[in-house]
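Listing S7. Sequence submitted for prediction.
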Amino acid sequence: MTAVDQPVSPRRARLRPSGLSTRVAALRERALDGRERLLDRAEPVLARTAPALSTVTTAGWVLLAAILLGLYVGASRGWAELVAGAVCGAVVLVLALLWVIGPAPLRARIELIANRVQIGEQAMGRVVASPRSGVSRLPVRAELPVGKGAAGFSIPALARDGEHEEIFTVPTRRRGHIVLGPVRAVRADPFALVRRVKDLSDQVDLYVHPRTIRLDARKAGFLRDIEGVTTHDLSSSDVSFHALRDYVPGDDRRAIHWRTTARVGRLMVRQFEETRRSHLLVVLSIRPQDYLDPEDFETAVSAAASLGLQAMREEREVTIVTNSGRIVAPTGATLLDQMSTVELQSDKRDLSELASHALTVAPGASIATIITGGSSDGQTLRRARNNLPLDVVTFAIRCGVQLTGDRRRIGDLVVLDVPELDSLPRAIASLL
């Protein structure tokens, strides 16, 4: 038997593939290590060159491609005119880069008359620019970003102590949170090949609050009195007296009823029923399916904000829950700030599931109001009511321009139809 015909040992046959796999794994590991080292070395270079590369506009990149193509074709084919044209283009590109080099000579600040305005009110402010150091000898083109847009204006040459003021007005036709700034100095060459933007100021927040209306909730009686709601939980100290019981070690001696103690011959203490402060839970649906018109949603947001503000004025606890979560607002101003950012949002949870979730957020609520649009029918509202405890006084508000302002009852749930915000006080008063 020749060496060619000798059979391969099974052990050697098993080792050959494993040895090949080991070599492949080692090569792959070396390749990955090499790539990581290359990236580590290139990262500082990219960090230094990225700002410069970002200043080149689309026209600048097209000119650079034309320069490289002209040099290659002209040099390979001996076309001197094409090479000369490419060199002229390179000179123009270099001059454009030199045009925008240098620090921004200005600093600026944004000043608003008021950072919080109600929808429809005029929001005015100004931009004040001054030289950073020395004298600003050339005019500067500047931009003021307003939300997703931007307003452009020109800052003239300024003396050492000079200032330039630019007055602006922000439209407040719709509710929202608008970010102003930062003011940007825009430097560009005459051919728009290179454009450099430098921030001159910080950002400023402008909140456009929803329209609210004052409610006489105490007259309507939908919030509880100052003593709160009496529960069946017994306490050793509270407002509502319940009964007397025997003294046990640890009781507060101030609760001892001495007259009864003297009569029965043993220590007797007062026992009280625990009371609960009013806690208003506002369940606001932000699902587009629940509203027939976007204006109906604005009415719903305004109604929720009005109820929350009224509860805060009376020093009541209030919790507002939407499909996107709880609105945390310790003061009326922050409440309106948060309500400014509430938007319609698709969610799989319907109104009943939202009510159930809201109860987990505010388990101590004594009154709940469900605010939704005209698309929510009585059956939907009743399912939402059934997910709230029976001892929680609940009413619903449907907002829609097509509604007639009726008041109806579905079981123990009172449903108020509010076609517009001005109808809300009358609807709340009908709860009495």
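Caption to Listing S7: primary sequence and predicted structure tokens for the chain studied. Residues 231-275 form one domain. Residues 1-6, 8-16, 219-241 have pLDDT under 50 and may be disordered.
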